[in-house]
Amino acid sequence: MTLTIPEAKGTYEQHEFLRAANVKAANGKFEIVAEPRQATTQYGERTFVDVKPQEGEDMVFTWVINTTSLRHLAKSFGDQEADWVGKSIVLTTMLANVEGKAKEVIYADGALDKSE
Predict the structure, then answer these.
(1) Three-state secondary-structure class, residue 82
(2) In a domain, 11, yes or no
(3) Taking the model in full, what pTM does it have?
């Protein structure tokens, strides 16, 4: 399945990027608050998902979602971006080798489950 998300057009609210510390502070519980969008960055095509913690601070963060998590959420929520808004998600972090350096990477819970 190929998730089709239109190019980012227009103006979007700018939010802080989601970090591993934010995920830990929220115990991994978030809600998607806007339709995912794609844009071309200096690192290539990226998909952005705006999320806010379900508990605690009422701040919105922009999650630069990795392909593994994107596929998992598309399987869970469908490939229509509007259907993602308001959905609850659980995020987790793990250390991964990114360009030769250990870095905490954010994944949607279940995205790394090999049984899917």
Answers:
(1) helix
(2) no
(3) 0.83
